[in-house]
Amino acid sequence: MVIFRRPESRLLSFSELFIINNAKASFWLYHRYLSNLTSTFNNMKVLSDLIAVILFFLTYTFTKNIVWATAVALVIGVLQASFTWVKHKKLDTMQWISLVLIVVFGGATIVLRDARFIMWKPTLLFWFGALALGISHALNKNGLKAMMGKELKLSDDIWRKLTWAWIAFLIFMGTVNLAVAYTFSEAQWVNYKLFGSTGLMIVFFIGQGLYLSRHLPQEN
């Protein structure tokens, strides 16, 4: 059984919010009501992440220059991290990893004018996420529960299944990104980054929300 509780005020990641919001959407479809809406600030965080991907895509579309598009992504990544630091006085582990990856690999693409570096960035981020969840599971700690336990009340068995689903999905996403990067053209990879990758994530999140809905209390 899953019970939604009012979360404490904190900044949620894009992935966390999609899990929560899609679970709530499924809850509405099955039970016709929602509780504890996500805060406006958290919704703005999701929007800012989407805007970053869209601006990367638009910059490349208009300039046909991966260096310019990468420069835009790097600036946005640094600004997002800076805003989070000013607002919360800290960055979580994955936020630090994301910042380092965009600075190092984005910077390498800009300096060396080699698109392969920025193409590797999403894969490494996905795989680092999978590794982090795998390590936490091996240490008998649940990374997803630690991140979202205040928003979702689930049994340990459900948390374990969600963790393995996320590990498999993140490994899959990282692998597909490389397959597209090395099989198709640079322009096709940019299109995949916005439409393909985002589409796959949305499908996964909706499927996860539907799975969670099976464990919600039934109406009388």
Estimate the helix proportion, in percent.
Answer: over 70%
Succession of helices and strands = EHHHHHHEHH
* CA-CA gap between termini: 15 Å
Identify the strand order in the major beta sheet. 1-2
Output mean pLDDT.
Answer: 78
Number of helices: 8
The number of domains is 2
Shape: globular
Overall SS class: mainly alpha
Poorly predicted sequence stretches spanning 5 or more consecutive residues:
1-43
Portion in strands = under 5%
Gyration radius, in Å: 18 Å
Number of strands: 2
Characterize the largest beta sheet: strand count, sense, and whether it forms a barrel. 2 strands, antiparallel
How is this structure best described in words?
With 220 residues, the chain is mainly α. The chain folds into two domains: 43-112; 115-214. The chain is 78% helix and 2% strand. It is built from eight helices and two strands. The chain has helices at residues 14-31, 40-63, 66-88, 93-112, 115-138, 143-148, 156-183, 186-213; strands at 3-4, 152-153. The longest helix is centred in the last third of the chain and has 28 residues, at 156-183. The protein starts with a strand and ends in a 7-residue tail after the last helix. The model is unreliable at 1-43 (pLDDT under 50).
